[in-house]
Write a structure and sequence with these properties.
This is Tetratricopeptide repeat protein. It comes from Trabulsiella guamensis ATCC 49490. The protein is of the alpha/beta class. The chain folds into 3 domains: 113 residues, Serine Threonine Protein Phosphatase 5, Tetratricopeptide repeat; 184 residues, Spore Coat Polysaccharide Biosynthesis Protein SpsA, Chain A; 60 residues, no CATH class. 39% of the residues lie in helices and 17% in strands. The strands form 2 sheets. A 7-stranded mixed beta sheet has the order 3-2-1-4-6-5-7, with helices on one face. A 5-stranded antiparallel beta sheet has the order 8-11-10-9-12. It is globular and about 75 Å long.
Length: 419
């Protein structure tokens, strides 16, 4: 196109659609540098578009340009009434305030985001609680107190963290039983290790497997009449002493539900892996609610579990909720109780944190695209776990939980290619 030739509205719309698709493709690949470049190109065409500005600020934040991201978010916030801002813009502003260590603004914008979310979803249909107070916790039957996880696939970041959770739960939550809702994509060796640690393995198959997104399998625990209390957790986040203290405070309270926030990105009404509750027979079946929720939606989006929770369960849960949160102060938030030192010695740890924030790998003789089998060996040469990762440019890389990789980097354990 000639640089001095004016474009028609149709040509500009076509160009904007192309850029929008390029942006979606970049973000789908977590390529925020490319996303930033696309957003900058788009802003040259529509410099005041709030959605593009919000997307640009997000990419700036993800590429480490925190101050510039902050200024972009603030400029956008000052240009429009709150109700007309893009959906996740205030969440982004709260997060970048966290990165910039601005706790007062973090609290202000995080609280605002949660208030707006509650205003939008909190008045939905709320199902009654069975009684004013929940039944007393029964510590003598772990089978009725379940920590529910979803697990699928053969990635070490999820599988090894799942096994570690099953292991440490016996010390941190001895009155509870870990339950993993999984399918055949999880290696049999991992399933056997989960059972060996005392966890319950529930295979999701048939109609449930076809209709319920994997991230929501763990919610099936709500439909189990034998379960009196449940905790919903992420397989790739580790249980800890801080969480133990918070859960124990809930068990001693008169609240039916429990929720935690522990990081500056925790501005969703219900974080899908950081809540729990007591059995409420007044709630419709999770399977039926899931079908209803997905009936008018395309595909299973990454955050489908959290979107479902805020729309279908939040109005009920907020009626009787003990909320541990020292960051935002939303909904009668309580500080975390005193607790024993956290066993996970990493400065990146918080409740709900991802265990696998580092890459490991080795050179491989296999061709690009082939799978390289490998294992982690302990000091005595015993194989602790085995996986397979794709080879690219004569090497494989995979994310490993820090509790494995730290031992490897310290020279105590080693990673070895198998064939």
């Amino acid at each position: 196109m000639h640089p001095f030739k004016k474009t028609t509205p149709q040509q500009q719309e076509q160009r904007l659609n192309q850029l929008a698709q390029q942006y979606r493709d970049a973000i789908a690949q977590n390529d925020f540098a490319a996303g930033k470049a696309v957003a900058e190109a788009t802003l040259r065409l529509v410099p005041r578009n709030p959605d593009v500005l919000s997307s640009y600020a997000l990419c700036l934040m993800r590429t480490g340009e925190y101050e510039k991201s902050y200024k972009t978010y603030k400029k956008l916030m000052q240009s429009l009434p709150v109700e007309k801002l893009p959906d996740t813009m205030i969440d982004g502003l709260a997060e970048v305030c966290g990165w910039l260590n601005r706790p007062d603004e973090l609290r202000r914008y995080g609280h605002l985001s949660l208030e707006l979310g509650d205003k939008k979803f909190g008045s939905g249909r709320a199902y009654p609680l069975p009684a004013a107070q929940p039944p007393a916790f029964n510590p003598h039957n772990p089978q009725e107190n379940v920590i529910a996880f979803t697990l699928f696939g053969a990635l070490p970041r999820y599988c090894e963290s799942a096994v570690m959770n099953a292991k440490v739960s016996k010390e941190l939550f001895p009155e509870w039983c870990c339950r993993f809702y999984l399918d055949d994509s999880v290696p049999q060796a991992v399933q056997a290790r989960l059972r060996a640690e005392g966890a319950e393995v529930i295979k999701v198959e048939g109609e449930q497997h076809q209709t319920i997104p994997p991230l929501m399998w763990r919610f099936l625990v709500l439909d189990d009449p034998a379960v009196k209390r449940y905790l919903i957790r992420d397989a790739d986040s580790l249980l800890s002493e801080r969480e133990q203290a918070a859960v124990n405070a809930w068990l001693q309270s008169d609240r039916w539900y429990h929720h935690m926030r522990d990081y500056f990105t925790h501005t969703e009404l219900l974080l899908a892996g950081m809540w729990g509750g007591c059995r409420n027979e007044n709630l419709p079946s999770i399977i039926d609610q899931t079908r209803e929720y997905l009936s008018d939606r395309e595909g299973h989006r990454r955050f489908v579990d959290q979107y479902f929770l805020r729309q279908h369960l939040w109005p009920t849960i907020k009626q009787s909720l003990l909320n541990h949160d020292e960051l935002f102060g939303f909904l009668d938030a309580q500080p975390y109780p005193a607790h024993a030192p956290i066993r996970w010695q990493t400065d990146k740890f918080h409740i709900g944190s991802n265990t696998s924030f580092q890459l490991a790998g080795k050179e491989s003789q296999k061709a690009d695209g082939e799978m390289q089998r490998w294992e982690v060996l302990d000091e005595q040469g015993n194989s602790l776990c085995q996986y397979a990762s794709p080879v690219d440019n004569h090497q494989w890389k995979d994310r490993l939980p820090f509790f494995l990789l730290d031992r490897v980097l310290a020279g105590e354990w080693q990673i070895r290619n198998i064939d």
